[in-house]
Amino acid sequence: MTKIRIGVIGAGLIGRKHLRKLAGHDDYELVGIADVNAEQVAAEQPGARVFKDYRELLAEARPDAAIIASPNQLHAENGIACARAGVHILIEKPVTDMLQTAAGLIAEVSKASVKSLVGHHRRHHTQVKTLKALLADGRIGDVVGVSAIWATHKPATYFEIAPWRSQAGGGPILINLIHEIDFLRFTLGEIIAVEAISANRQRGFAVEDTAVALIAFESGALGTFFLSDCAVTPWTTEQGLGEAPEFPFSGQSSYRLMGRRGAIEFPSLDQWTQDGGAQDWNRPIQAQANHAASIDPYVAQLDHFRDVIRGVAPSLQPVEDGARSLLATLAIAEAASAGRRIDLRERYAAFATGQAAGVRQGAT
């Protein structure tokens, strides 16, 4: 079968990761890379066509698809240009930096009928699929709540390489928590309300370094989330899964999902139930191991993107769904700033209405 001609827009930290995965993937042919630091990228990627401007990549290399790994605030611009060129997109999270630009992107993608996939790679883990299956089977009964942590200490070089990470929109809420919010939506269902507090005392940047969120789900479950990029712990999903070399493997679970009949830790998938399925605090609680093979989620994501482009699978997360994860995450940042509870149901409805209007306007 003919290889998919693909370009990569943005060759920073995540862009280089995609390039490494593409190098070993037989279904894709890399036809170009676009990055403002074109000379440096060309030195790092010998043999690749490198463009300083992504528009030159689209016009001259004419890819079938593109991976958009540019800074968040450029996602919409890049994605709209790809859609208008008839290029399918795998767009890194967050889908855009603002809901207004997300609506514009959705309209253009719909108008052009190109395929889209948002890069919440965690959805592709076998452990995540197994967790969803265990919950669907009622292994812990109705989920009552979830307690979660994402806490690690980012080095100074992380901010020196990309100074935008120390400015508004570049903190751990939008860079890191958005992955976790998407994971929670994917496994436990829609989030309908949030509250939060945040602090920047440790780093003193214009953006938060620590935050705590309270989350209400449509199912009635409640959740708490502690987030920090300046605390040394073994409790991140990356460390628990060993999915990235930047995060040495810890094997520790950072999620505890609690139900009427038991509990499950993630990513270990250890399950806790009382003997005979009892629901009595006087009965001992026993552990049961559940197993799921570890895979490279970025390779699995490329496999899925291939299938989406070829029309043999629906997108696991089109841009419309990625925008809902963005909406919930932005609401947490807003709640932390305003110090109040935010109900998301009206916002989902308003966004869907505006999104539909944008699509209609784009189709005329």
Automatic annotation (TrEMBL):
Highest taxon, organism lineage: Bacteria
GFO/IDH/MocA-like oxidoreductase domain sequence ranges: 129-264
InterPro entries, A to Z: Gfo/Idh/MocA-like_OxRdtase_N (IPR000683), Gfo/Idh/MocA_Oxidoreductases (IPR051450), GFO_IDH_MocA-like_dom (IPR055170), NAD(P)-bd_dom_sf (IPR036291)
Gene3D superfamilies found in the cross-reference section: Dihydrodipicolinate Reductase, domain 2, NAD(P)-binding Rossmann-like Domain
Domain Gfo/Idh/MocA-like oxidoreductase N-terminal positions: 4-120
GO molecular function, one term: nucleotide binding
Alphabetical list of PANTHER family matching this protein: BILIVERDIN REDUCTASE A, BLR3664 PROTEIN
Protein name according to UniProt: Putative dehydrogenase
Source species: Bradyrhizobium daqingense
